[in-house]
Specification:
Layout: H1 3-25, E1 41-45, E2 48-57, E3 67-75, E4 81-87, E5 95-98, E6 106-108, E7 112-116, E8 123-126, H2 129-132, E9 138-145, E10 149-159, H3 189-199, H4 207-212
Parallel strand pairs: 2-10
Antiparallel strand pairs: 1-2, 2-3, 3-7, 3-8, 4-6, 4-9, 5-8, 9-10
């Protein structure tokens, strides 16, 4: 092979290698584009992966009431794990965990997931949410699992508006002083019936009066 042909073959090989390298950077599970993380927090420890972790507060700024921790918990292992607790380090607040149905622990099935927040899903409710968190902050949240242990991350704090409207805190209970049922001024069914029974005879001629005519 001549020297010029050899140089051409080497150049072609280098070009193919460069194109293959660029292609590898843009495709597959390790693609650079997949390395761009969303605004919501995500992390993995052992077989546990947490995605879209967010602290969602009341819709109105500075409103009293609970907040919630939302997100999706994946268990990539072959045995179930329970989510034993969710804590907010640096605060004195407590987080109440509840499964999607019934009572008991929040269990993440093997090779499955659990959604926190939203109707019909498990919940993690932060008592005194407006005291423990502040909108716009990145709040440290630690999830503790039965086998994996602690999984910590920083979750953004957002009010229950727009994208987070359907996963925010549930509506607050009706204040104790609010009356329930029918208004006190509305007569009950029995009383109305008695009034009608008493009025009927006054405008109706009796049998004896009719007979006298």
């Amino acid at each position: 092979m001549s020297r010029s042909l050899r140089r051409g073959a080497l150049a072609a090989t280098a070009l193919v290698f460069s194109l293959a390298t660029l292609t590898a950077c843009g495709a597959g599970n390790n693609a650079q584009t997949l390395g761009v993380k969303p605004d919501n927090a995500a992390t993995s420890v052992d077989v546990i992966t947490i995605q879209n972790a967010t602290v969602v507060t009341q819709p109105e700024a500075n409103a009293a009431g609970p907040a919630v921790v939302t997100g999706t918990v994946f268990n990539n292992g072959g045995s179930p794990q329970t989510l034993d607790s969710v804590k907010l380090p640096g605060t004195s607040t407590t987080v109440k965990l509840s499964p999607a149905k019934g009572s008991g622990p929040v269990t993440v099935p093997p090779h499955g997931s659990v959604q926190l927040g939203g109707a019909g899903n498990a919940s993690a409710v932060i008592e005194n949410g407006n005291e423990a968190t502040r909108n716009g902050d990145a709040q440290q949240v630690v999830f503790t699992f039965s086998k994996t242990g602690d999984v910590g991350l920083r979750a953004f704090v957002w009010p229950a508006n727009s994208f987070f409207k359907d996963v925010g805190p549930s509506t607050q209970p009706t204040p104790a002083g609010t009356p329930s049922g029918s208004p006190s001024g509305t007569p009950a069914a029995g009383a109305e019936g008695e009034s009608g029974a008493a009025d009927a005879p006054s405008g109706t001629p009796s049998d004896s009066a009719s007979a006298s005519h």
